[in-house]
Amino acid sequence: MMKIEYIYHSGFTVDTKNHFLVFDYYKGKIELKDKPTYVFCSHNHLDHFNPEIFNWSKDKDDILFILSSDIENVPNVKANFIDPYEELKINNLHIKTFGSTDRGVSYLITVDGNSIFFAGDLNWWHWKNDTEEEKRQEERAFKTEISKIKGNKIDLAFFPVDPRLEEYYYLGGQYFINEIQPKVFIPMHFGDKFEITKEFINKAKDSSTSIVEINTTNQIIPLF
To answer: N or C terminus of the chain with fewer C-beta within 10 Å?
Structure first.
């Protein structure tokens, strides 16, 4: 069984049978567990990375940081730096990275029999004020990246539904669900706009993927 906690924005924890994973902590209340802990940072944008995370290692020996290679000024902690399209095996975790349509990496992690995809800033960034050519470029870049992920079994996916894209917020998530067909889809990257998660469920309701509605920070989501 996995237990997910929504921290804030794109920050989540995933508590599995034997491991504790933290993704893109930015701010908010977080409680670490008495388990081997792996802290993932997809890129260096300030809404995905907070150097405060390195202080956690002062009180916890069994913590390892898996960081996109664009993250700099890292103190003397146990850390692995990773680029797109690399693989890393650490203890009982198998980590594959894919690219982004913004900065850094996206992660595909196999742990305790479950596969978890964390998109970071990988999304179909369809901005209303872009030129038509810019919109086509964004679409091509996104669909090319998704084609590289396709074929992987994904039990749980964290993916952006960014309200700044206005009526186009759903494009990336819906395309990802249609192409990848994860068992469970958890929306992220929406700040305080919790209502967008329910709106997205209504947009993608014909899918066999289970989509999670998020209503508050520190919401607990039990799975499997």
So the answer is: N
* Half-sphere exposure of residue 97: CA atoms within 13 angstroms, side-chain side: 26
| Angle between helical axes of 132-149 and 171-180 (0-180°, round to 10) | 30
Per domain, the residue ranges of the chain are 2-223
**What are the structure tokens assigned to 170, written together?**
């759903």
Answer yes or no: is pLDDT of 206 > 90: no
Residue 200 makes CB contacts below 8 A (sequence gap 6+) with 161, 169, 170, 173, 187, 211
CB-CB contact of 9 with 190 (8 Å):
yes
The pLDDT tens digits for 73-99 are 999 999 999 999 999 999 999 999 999
CA distance 212 to 189: 14
Q: What are phi and psi of 23, to 5 degrees?
A: -120, 130
Q: Count CB-CB contacts under 10 A for residue 152.
A: 14
Token pair 């074929």 is at which residue? 151
Query: What is the CATH T-level fold of the domain 2-223, as seen in this structure?
Result: Metallo-beta-lactamase; Chain A (3.60.15)
Locate tokens 């889809």: which residue?
A: 185
Both structure tokens of 24 = 């893109």
